[in-house]
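Wed. Picked up where I left off yesterday with MarR family transcriptional regulator. The coffee machine is broken again, so keeping this brief.
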Amino acid sequence: MDDELIKRLRKLIQHYAYTSIQMHEAVARKAGLSGTDHKYLGFLIERGQMTAGELATLTGLTTGAVTGLIDRLEKKNLVKRQFAQDDRRKVIIEPDTPAIMALLAPLYKEFRSKSENLIASFAEEELKILEAYFLAAIELMNETTNKLTNN
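Structure written out below (tokens, as returned):
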């Protein structure tokens, strides 16, 4: 395996990650959110309703920080708190997905269209390689996150 190619790919992957953070920060600012609030909102969109404790575990935030996050998102009418029917001490966070999409979709519209065109420019075999890479990379990142979180 070509060591120079591996170095270039590692640098490119880092650059991609940094550029992604910058873009998402810009989208968040335009939407009136902080970058981290925007990304945590993504967890709620992806996974749906969850307890505040589950959100704390998922994000790695303290329960106090999650309370602040929920307060900020609730003020923007993007989530609402509900008490669990079986245990009123348990707070369930319900994302308002239509409101979230109305806020964020226009900011991603052009990017999404260009991304889809970029993806369509690759051959099916190349797309399968990209898919395999991203699936394996996500697994590695989750494994690293779990080790760091649980040690």
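Quick read: The CA atoms of residues 114 and 120 lie 10 Å apart.
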